[in-house]
């Protein structure tokens, strides 16, 4: 069988997903292709999706800015995608499109590998900065792991409130503005940066000041281009443990590949290879 896979989004020319999925295809011994399918804001989204459906692709990833926009075009949503309200993976199941979200699970797996202690103490105080599609996935995945103190700070606080409303019983979530987050940063054991601020080419930008950061806290940034964002550089200087965004990228892809092919790829040295590739960019 020849797997036909791909990615929709805009802009996607510099995406690393083809590199990752081609590695997976090679490692698994399966044959197939993973194509970039750029859908620009000028294109008719409906028409492009009709074309995609008739092409009979086996599955595809969805990235910015379509993770929410894709939902009305799907035949079914898996529960994680439903509760998250964002889809990053679509599986063609006998002509029906089923939407999944592997971002949050991918994120948690990378964090757990590096900092298992976070998940051993459900009282760990977490601050998520950002309230976009990625933040929604991360929030739900942390709740699924039993964490119960998860605050959200965002420029647009109503977006953070919308995420908090999808919390669970027993989960405490305060919504903060960005300035307030700067002031109370010392309360948190784990800070997760999920906004697009600091991403290439705007590498000199940093979403908030880390002046109040506690030495020894864990600071994570899901941006992977650059791998070491200004946010992480500052955190490291302040004595925090830093966690990079490439593991989320790799593991969300691994889960997506498994959904399409039923093949659970051994990661082996791919994590290090991806890190080296990103460091060289
Ligand atoms: P999104 O849905 O578009 O959300 C963007 C977020 O960034 C929102 O919280 C937005 O705040 C905030 N933001 C953007 N520009 C800002 C600015 N100038 N000042 C303050 N806040 C700003 O995007 P997303 O899908 O969540 O992705 C966000 C980032 O995560 C991207 O850099 C993406 O590459 C990265 N990501 C990484 C992975 C991975 O595998 N490592 C996976 C997914 C995403 P407002 O709500 O106020 O607009």
Task: Outline the structure in words.
With about 280 residues, the chain is an alpha/beta fold. The chain has two domains: about 1-100 and about 245-280, Rossmann fold, CATH 3.40.50.10860; about 105-245, Rossmann fold. The chain has ten helices and twelve strands. A hairpin with a 2-residue loop joins strand 5 and strand 6. Helix 4 (about 105-115) crosses helix 5 and helix 4 (about 105-115) packs across helix 9 (about 245-260). The longest helix has 16 residues, at about 245-260. It is globular. Bound molecules: NADP nicotinamide-adenine-dinucleotide phosphate (NAP). NADP nicotinamide-adenine-dinucleotide phosphate (NAP) binds near residues 156 and 224.
H/E element sequence: EHEHEEHEEHEHEHEHEEHEHH
State the distance separating the first and last CA atoms. 34 Å
Give the cofactors and ligands: NADP nicotinamide-adenine-dinucleotide phosphate
Describe the main β-sheet briefly.
Answer: 6 strands, mixed
**Overall strand count:** 12
Residue fraction in strands: 15-25%
Stretches with pLDDT under 50, minimum 5 residues: none
Helix content: 25-40%
CATH topology title of the largest domain: Rossmann fold
Domain Shikimate dehydrogenase substrate binding N-terminal: 7-90
Catalytic activity: shikimate + NADP(+) = 3-dehydroshikimate + NADPH + H(+)
Protein name: Shikimate dehydrogenase (NADP(+))
Pathway: Metabolic intermediate biosynthesis; chorismate biosynthesis; chorismate from D-erythrose 4-phosphate and phosphoenolpyruvate: step 4/7
